[in-house]
Structure to design on (241 residues):
């Protein structure tokens, strides 16, 4: 689901954590249809990695996960982002379980089975109270598929994994993410990244594209594409197949 909506700068991001793939898929569809962007995770560790990479505006979190307990994940999320709105999912309706979650920092609870409309309405309420429903607050954050670039901190993550880029590699990637799926010529790249069009610059662009591709695409579906004689483009995984 993360790559399905393509590039939406400043779009509200919702992390969805549940160990049932069918349920995360359904919740992701509901979140996307609400106009937000879904980031699904199937266990606690991947949820924490994804949260660090995508900087979500809200979280839908199952209380029962295969590795970390949902309350452990909640406490870690709360430690890293104290005001992050969290909607807990639980198959248990006992009062003590709800109290444990609320004490750990959950903002609201939905008990399984639930309606998707209820989840969306509760999420909307949490986002509204947090001032994030219409957020373009993180305009420095650019998202394309599972690739996340944050201008303010100059950090890049793919699928929640941090990538170490040089200053010029970061500038090059930032330029490409400003123009997703658009072909950029070597001359355009030189002009924007190096503010020059000096002879031999084409080779410089090739070297940096190669370095960037090695760091971003290694072991993953490729996002950076070359069209001989025209230039380079970055596209979500499904668009490049």
């Amino acid at each position: 689901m993360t790559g399905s909506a393509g590039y939406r700068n400043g779009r509200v991001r919702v992390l969805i954590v549940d160990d049932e793939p069918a349920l995360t898929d359904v919740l992701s569809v509901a979140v996307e249809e609400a106009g937000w962007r879904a980031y699904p995770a199937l266990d606690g560790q991947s949820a924490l990695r994804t949260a660090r990479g995508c900087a979500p505006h809200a979280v839908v979190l199952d209380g029962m996960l295969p590795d970390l307990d949902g309350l452990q994940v909640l406490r870690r999320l709360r430690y890293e982002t104290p005001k992050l709105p969290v909607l807990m999912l639980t198959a248990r309706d006992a009062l003590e379980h709800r109290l444990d979650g609320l004490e750990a920092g959950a903002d609201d609870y939905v008990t399984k089975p639930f309606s998707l409309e209820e989840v969306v309405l509760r999420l909307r309420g949490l986002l509204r109270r947090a001032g994030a429903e219409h957020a373009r607050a993180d305009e420095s954050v650019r998202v394309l598929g599972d690739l996340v670039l944050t201008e303010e901190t100059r950090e890049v993550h793919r699928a929640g994994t941090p990538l170490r880029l040089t200053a010029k590699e970061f500038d090059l990637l930032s330029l490409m993410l400003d123009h997703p799926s658009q072909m950029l010529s070597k001359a355009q790249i030189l002009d924007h990244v190096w503010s020059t069009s000096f002879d031999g610059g084409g080779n410089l662009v090739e070297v940096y594209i190669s370095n960037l591709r090695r760091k971003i695409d290694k072991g993953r579906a490729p996002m950076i594409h070359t069209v001989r004689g025209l230039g380079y483009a970055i596209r979500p995984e499904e668009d490049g197949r």
Observations:
- Residues 224 and 234 are 4 Å apart (CA to CA).
- DSSP finds eight helices and eleven strands in the chain.
- The radius of gyration is 20 Å.
- The longest strand covers residues 13-17.
